[in-house]
Amino acid sequence: MKPRLSHLLSVLVLPTAIPIAAQAAGQYPEKPVRIVVGFTAGGPADIIARVMAQKLGESLGQSFIVENVPGAGGNIAAARVAKASPDGYTLHVISTGFIINPSLYVRDVGYDPLRDFEPIAMLAASPNIVSVNTQMKVDSAKGLIDLIKAHPTQYSYAHPGIGSTPHLNGELFKLTYKLDGLTTVPFNGTPQLLASAVSGDTPIVFTSLPSALPFIRDGKLKPVMVLSKERSEILPNVPGTIESGTPGLEGDTVSGILAPAGTPRPIIDRLNAAIRKAAAMPEVKTQLLNVGFSVAPSSPEEFRTRIKGEIDRWQHVIRNANIRIE
Predict the structure, then answer these.
(1) Which one of 9, 159, 276, 321 has the fewest beta carbons within 10 angstroms of its own beta carbon?
(2) Contact between 221 and 235 (Cβ < 8 Å)
(3) 231: which DSSP letter?
(4) Buried b (16+ CB within 10 A) or exposed e, 203-226
C-alpha cells in the first residue's frame, strides 16, 4: 500500500506546485534585486552590469542594484553568489575568468560554473586582439608567424596576467604554430602592458580589444588580427582569424548573467525576456560598443552550451601549456 499512497500524494501535490512557481514569477520582482560583480567599479563587467541593471529596473519595475565584490580574479564573488538563496534576488554578472578559473587554480575556487549556477543569458562579447609595435615590419598574421619562426628566440609577447584569455590565446598561438621560442611576459596591469608594447620592450601583445582600442586608434600600436572568426564591428578594418588564415585561434571576453542553481525557471525566463528587450535598444548597443563590446543576448540553454564549450576548450590549452595558479 505504501507505494500506492506515495504515488497518490505526488499526484495530489504536483498540480499545485507549478501554478505557485508561475505565480511567484509573475509577481517577480517584489523587492530590489542585487547584481554581484567580481571586479571593481569602472571596468567592462561593471559597466555592462550597470547598463543592464538600469534597463532591467525600467522593464520590471524594481531596483536592480550593482554590488562590487572584487578579489581573486572574481572567485570571491562567484563563491558568494553560489551560496545565495535561489530566489532571483541575487544575480551574478560574470566575465570569462569565471568560466576558466576552476580549471586554472590549484586550490578549490569555491564554485562550479555549471553545477552551482543557472545561466540566464549572455549579455555581450568582445574579441581578443593581436597587436604589435609600430616599428615591426609585420602587417598580417602570416607575416608575424613567419618572422617569429625565422628568429625563434628573438621575440616576446606580453599579456595582462596568467590565466587571462589573452594569455591563453597567446599560448594557443604558440602551440598551434610550434613557436616554442616565443617568450611569454605577464603583466599585472593593462597600462604597464601597453606601455611596454608601445616602447618595443615586448613588441607583440595579446590583449582584449577594449584595452588596445585607444592605442590602435591613436596609431601607437599596429593591429594584426582580431581573434574572432569575422571582422569586429568595433574595429572593422582589421581581419579576423578566417581571413587571416588562422582559424581556431578565436578567443574573447564573454559577459553574461547567472543566478544560483535552483532558481525557478519562470524567473529565469522573465529575466531573459527583459534582457533581450534591453539588448535590442539602440542606446544599449551604443553604450556597450563604447567600451569595446557587442551585444550578444542568448537563451539560457545557449549560454550553458557556451560555458561548457569554453571550459572544454581552455582546459585543453591550460593542460598542454602547463599553466596553473597556486
Answers:
(1) 9
(2) no
(3) -
(4) bbbbbbbbbbbebbeeebbbbbbb
Cell of 187: 603583466
Give the pLDDT confidence of 202-231 residue by residue, as tens digits. 999 999 998 899 999 999 999 999 999 999
Instruction: Please spell the DSSP secondary structure of 21-76, one letter per residue.
Output: HHHHHHH--SS-EEEEESS-TTSHHHHHHHHHHHHHHHHHSS-EEEEE---GGGHH
- At residue 128's C-alpha, the angle toward residues 123 and 129, to 5°, is 145
Of 149, 134, 119, nearest in space to 306 by CA = 119
Tell me the pLDDT tens digit for each residue of 281-312.
999 999 999 888 999 999 999 999 999 999 99
What is the residue whose three cell numbers read 609600430?
A: 134
Residues 156/162/166/171 CA torsion (nearest 10 deg)? 60
Considering only CA atoms, which of 169, 186, 180 is closest in space to residue 317?
169
**Residues 6+ away with beta carbon under 8 Å from 317:** 168, 171, 172, 175, 323
Give me the domains of the chain, ranges plus CATH numbers. Answer: 28-126+253-320 (3.40.190.150), 127-244 (3.40.190.10)
Q: Is 29 exposed, middle or buried (0-12, 13-18, 19+ CB in 10 A)?
A: buried
Give every CB contact of residue 57 below 8 A, 6+ residues apart in sequence.
63, 64
Alpha carbon distance, N-terminus to C-terminus of the chain = 57
Outline where the chain has alpha helix (H).
2-27, 44-60, 75-82, 96-104, 141-150, 165-177, 190-199, 209-217, 241-244, 265-279, 282-289, 300-320
Whether residue 3 is preceded by a cis peptide bond, meaning omega within 30 degrees of 0, is no
Q: What's the grid cell of residue 52?
A: 543592464
Residue 83: Cβ-neighbour burial (10 angstroms; 0-12, 13-18, 19+): exposed
